[in-house]
Design goal:
Elements lengths: L1 H19 L3 H28 L6 H19 L7 H22 L5 H7 L3 H8 L1 H18 L11
Helix pairs in contact: 1-4, 2-3, 2-4, 2-7, 4-7
């Protein structure tokens, strides 16, 4: 069961990117931003939710802060590119984003759920690929953002 959950986390961004032609490079960077947010500001945001009487535990809040910007970026950037080469590059970036999502989200789950992943073949292998996956995802995302042109730039305006 843990390997199925892991596969969903890793391959869902790829499926969304492929189907919607979403900008996976921006989504990867949004995922990085969500991680920075939970790393540095989750305690302050948690205090704010308590002051506003919003009953959300810290684990759920951190998952929301991680996943919402990422998912919204994938859903709000449809038809972000055209061409086969860009499709392949965006799909590779989506796989890196899915791997990063799993690497960051699994430790945020409750302890009992995390223990299910401890002996998982997929989780152990994903952790071994952590450095090249993140490094490659960042490098590819930046290259695609810096040098990529959206599909709308290719259309002729009359």
């Amino acid at each position: 069961m843990p390997d199925i959950v892991l596969a969903i986390l890793v391959f869902a961004p790829l499926a969304i990117t492929f189907l919607l032609k979403s900008n996976a490079a921006l989504a990867f960077l949004a995922l990085c931003a969500g991680f920075v947010l939970i790393s540095f500001a989750s305690a302050d945001i948690g205090n704010l939710t308590k002051n506003l009487s919003i009953q959300v535990n810290s684990s759920t809040l951190n998952l929301l802060l991680l996943i919402v910007p990422f998912a919204l970026t994938l859903l709000l950037t449809p038809k972000a590119f055209s061409g086969r080469i860009r499709l392949v590059l965006q799909c590779v970036c989506a796989l890196c984003a899915g791997g990063l999502l799993a690497l960051v989200a699994i430790p945020l789950l409750s302890e009992s759920v995390r223990l299910n992943f401890a002996n998982s073949w997929g989780w152990n292998n994903l952790q071994k690929l952590q450095t090249p996956l993140i490094s490659g995802g960042i490098a590819l995302s930046l290259v695609l953002v810096w040098f990529g042109k959206s599909a709308s730039h290719h259309k002729k305006h009359k």
